[in-house]
Design goal:
The chain is mainly α. It contains nine helices and no strands.
Length: 289
């Protein structure tokens, strides 16, 4: 079991890299950081070649190598867990779930390569986030009782918030409005385009229709921040001090990154860190369940 937990740590670190590389490819594909920035963003229709194209090619190759290694790690951990009998039942179940998610993302990649459909972006993002969360559970049993329904509820909120962020990115609406009031005014002027929330339809909409999605994403961020802060405080009081402090510190970093992303024009580095922080927040919350 000690060997299995070591492999789980390797898979966790590998998945942090996979999530980061996936975010880089996804955001560059939707025009983030295109030239001339930011006027090209809403009109961006694909990779323009040069340094950006080379960077994406290298990221894609590295992503495939690391993802394949993670798949092999999941298989190895599943075998070790099964051979350990009842003692490894928990780890075997989590490793099996990690394997299923990895295979699901592999199938999604094969059949949707090059697709800019928001549903595909959502599948890749949430699948990667869920794998990271499962790996966080696999690194070892918790040292104290979990927080049950409270942590599960916050995890659901984080998943919904991450999905909203993916829709904002996929609809290229990140620069449409800078605050809740502006987003609400644009959404009202566009006739409250609720179809922008449909991941199977939103790809064909003009970016201004994404003001509704971005406004909801900003509004939900307030609710999620309060919920995560309350969970972090509860974790501290329940004796889960490492996870509690990590949750509060990561939440503070995420809040700063959110302000940076929303105020200085979507710098690629800040958007990528914002995406990674969201994944790590979800992993920490799932570990508290």
């Amino acid at each position: 079991m000690k060997h299995l937990h070591r492999l789980a740590w390797i898979s966790l670190l590998s998945l942090v890299l996979v999530v980061g590389l996936s975010a880089f490819m996804r955001h560059v594909a939707t025009g983030l950081g295109c030239q001339p920035w930011p006027t090209c963003h809403a009109q961006y229709s694909g990779m323009s070649g040069g340094a950006s194209s080379l960077a994406v090619s290298v990221a894609r190759l590295l992503h495939r190598v690391v993802a394949t290694g993670t798949l092999l790690l999941a298989i190895t951990m599943l075998v070790i867990g099964l051979r350990a009998g009842p003692r490894g039942r928990r780890e075997a179940v989590l490793a099996a779930l990690l394997l299923v998610l990895a295979l699901g993302l592999a199938v999604l990649g094969v059949f949707t390569a090059g697709s800019r459909l928001p549903a595909v972006a959502l599948g890749n993002l949430l699948g990667g986030f869920m794998m990271l969360a499962v790996a966080a559970r696999l690194v070892g049993p918790p040292a104290a009782p979990g927080l049950g329904a409270a942590a599960a509820g916050v995890a659901v909120l984080l998943v919904a918030q991450s999905a909203g962020g993916a829709l904002v990115s996929a609809s290229q609406a990140g620069l449409v409005c800078n605050d809740l009031r502006a987003c609400a005014e644009l959404a009202r002027a566009a006739g409250w385009p609720w179809q922008a929330l449909n991941p199977w339809f939103a790809a064909g909409l003009p970016p201004v229709d994404g003001a509704l999605v971005q406004g909801l994403h900003r509004l939900a961020a307030i609710v999620v921040t309060l919920a995560v802060a309350a969970l972090g405080w509860r974790a501290l009081r329940a004796g889960r001090r490492p996870e509690g402090w990590a949750l509060l510190l990561l939440l503070a970093l995420q809040a700063v990154l959110g302000l940076v992303v929303g105020s200085i024009g979507l710098p690629l580095w800040a958007v990528l860190l914002h995406n990674l922080a969201s994944a790590l927040l979800l992993a920490l919350v799932v570990r508290l369940i």
